[in-house]
Write a structure and sequence with these properties.
Length: 121
């Protein structure tokens, strides 16, 4: 998925660009759903880092939470991103969130919201 600088775009242009990037990777997401996901994300003005990747993948899962097959696909993709960033200082926080998303996928809980997790910066 593309995570390109978009801090120079107007908000509507940025949302449209991010929505198109999301749909390239996950064409089963409608354009309106992709726009809703993109609206949750801020502009990219700095080099992409793990928090930016995590945020986008999490937002996709959040908006698409009723489509568990798609959530599982995004979850698996996010696992690969985390594997490539094992040394990141916030990796344990992200793993905790993923464990709860896995519980959701297994029908053991509702979809987890990030406010449930203390993020130590």
């Amino acid at each position: 998925m593309n995570f390109e600088y978009n801090g120079n775009l107007l908000e509507e242009e940025r949302i449209e660009k991010v929505a198109q990037d999301i749909r390239k990777q996950y064409p089963e997401i409608s354009l309106q759903q992709a726009r809703n996901i993109a609206m949750l994300e801020g502009p990219i003005s700095t080099p992409c880092d793990l928090p930016m990747f995590f945020e986008r993948y999490y937002h996709i899962m959040l908006i698409m939470k009723d489509e568990k097959e798609l959530v599982k696909k995004v979850f698996d993709d996010l696992i690969l991103v985390l594997e490539r960033n094992r040394e990141h200082p916030k990796i344990e926080h992200y793993k905790t969130v993923l464990i709860e998303i896995l519980s959701y996928l297994n029908g053991l809980r509702e979809f987890p919201y990030l406010k449930e997790f203390k993020d130590e910066e």
